[in-house]
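User: Predict the complex.
Assistant: Input components as received:
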Amino acid sequence: MSRAEFSYDFPHRHLLSVADLNPVDIQIIFERAAHYLAANRTPDKRTDVLRGLTVLNLFFEASTRTQGSFEMAGKRLGADVVNFAVAHSSASKGESLSDTARTLAAMKPDIMVVRHSATGAPQFLADRTGLSVVNAGDGMHEHPTQALLDSFTLAQRWGSVGGRRILIVGDILHSRVARSNIGLLNILGAEIRLCAPPTLLPSDVDQWGCDVFHDLDEALKGCDAVMALRQQRERMSGGFVPSEREFFHLFGLTHERLEAASPDVLVMHPGPMNRGVEIHTKLADDPERSVILEQVESGVAVRMAILELIGANIRKEASA
Amino acid sequence: MSTSLAITNARLVDPASGHDGPGGVLIEDGVIAQTGNELDLDAADEIIDAKGRILAPALIDLRCAKEPALTPDGETIDTLCAAAMSGGFGTIVLAPNARSPLDKADGFAGMSRGLNQRSVRILSACGATQGLAGEQMAEIGLMVRGGAVYAGQGDRPIADTALMRRLVSYTSQFDIWLACRPADAGLSRGSVAMESDWSARMGLPSEPAVSERIAIERDAALAELSGGKLMIDRLSTAAGLDALRHVRSRDLEIAATVAVAHLTLNEVDAGGLDSAFRLDPPLRGESDRLTLVEAVTAGEIDAVVSDHRPTPFDDKADPFALAMAGTLSLETMLGAMLGLVHEGELELIDALRVMTSGPADLLGLPQGRIAVGAPADLILIDGDKPWVCQPDGFASARGNSAWAGRRFQGRVLQTIVSGDTLYNP
């Protein structure tokens, strides 16, 4: 299935939630990402498709990998990329989010990549500024580019994720990665399983279209991929599990436990990893199983694809 | 070596099947092979004619304590076992308490295995929070893997509602009971008696009965929210029973236990401020006691527990309000319960149900019933034999009994576990 077969163009000028995407949108993103994945492996990574556009990285929460990945993606596409580490500037001087947004919008950037600790902050900024916004993580709500790069990584291995059985294990309650992945994998027709202690599952999880487990060995049966999530201590108040040791005994991924899964099972982690808590260190480093570094590589390609597609729509709007 | 033992001509009382009538059992290899009146006696190596005696499942206690290891002159596992055997118990569960919180996962499995090798079956529960402080969850999962049969919190209610919610939720994944004393932490803090005319006159720090009701309603609401199994660990008031009835009208897994002290004693017994009656929960009014006895008959109480707690002599020798709470109970529980039967307050089969199949069913144990294939854990009782409770004669090294000097009618003659006679004075 290629893009030429559809008389359909990517219609979005924001990426706020995976729920805004349909399967063809996703297909288009993956197709462009595959192109950039290959290009990124050559010495000629740089293109000029975003020349003239300014991408503003607006991270209200500390981030290394996501911000770096977006920055690299923007630069490789020829955009001017500006990083605003908001945590250290206006916000700490008491400026409201609305004022910060209008101030930055007055500098006329074209795309804002936003990470914020509050659910809905990227949507809020999109509404207030009229700029194109890419959600780089809002609270415990969504992290759409992470979900896209996860599915893209799997699709590179398998061709398609539809019909595959994928397990997400760990702190689902506090995870925006889990929420976006569940949304996206549902759109793509994968069978989703969740496994966590009841204290780390949302209360309405039975209505999320997933099979829910508390026993990892049971949950792993026949899985094609398993994604481990770290406990989001920064979002927790009090203890949701007694100890990291107990968590590892009950929910930690190991080679031994993976024997219940499909023989070619792939292991994923959105990072940062806590070795010996959600994943055994040997498993994290096993090239036969772990696609964790492939996820990071895919991340740049997927973000290039998204910036390119949104950039094209910005130009289209401007010329119209 | 295969051995077989037959017990015939008894009054066989088996609450699990509801049978109370003439009968006997044939035991082979530690398991009940036949029951009824027509046993194959040719196969038996030994036959006991139990004419005039009661044959019942050996008792099961979900809540007892030993003193912490290495307590000078303390009660040990040996004395605890001896007390259990002479009291008619085949299975006892060590429950966490402030002195022995059972909250450390390290060594828990080893301790469980050690307890397992005893002649009386000894199981262990685990502490739900670290040090039972009600602040941090203990490593419940690792202790369940090590053999813990439920998680409990001793006498300390959990004040933090968010933590209680997480505990109910967290324990649900292991399908174990979370046992919590029904008391509102704020209302019960520092109290040594129930709020009543008597405690007011005595000037004792006291706890209102609604403390129990508030805790049951809160904890049941949290169990409803998060889907856990809640054990009301020692119901003691009529107000609490009301709350239990109310929350049971919803689709919840809620079990309730009562300590034998609250079925057989009341606050008048503590009237002389004898520290032997300083208990947690405190002794209640006579109407509370009668209401709880009726609840046993009505099947609303799943298990009666001994709440056996040896206390050092020095700690009991303090004035009532300062003395350590607790009473020895394993050796007097059956006598005290039979007292209710002789008084006409309780039928024998109902009294036995909450000490045998009731607790067994809560933990999913195969014993506690007289059925073919069940472990041969049995007791023979002389239902009428009079005796006087004299703590000096107890197997326990301690003497803190709230029933000291009391006259009982009915006593264990023989305790059999896995077909082996452990006690036969």
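The beta strands of chain A are 54-59, 80-84, 111-116, 132-138, 165-170, 191-195, 211-213, 225-229, 266-268.
Let me know if you want any component modeled separately.
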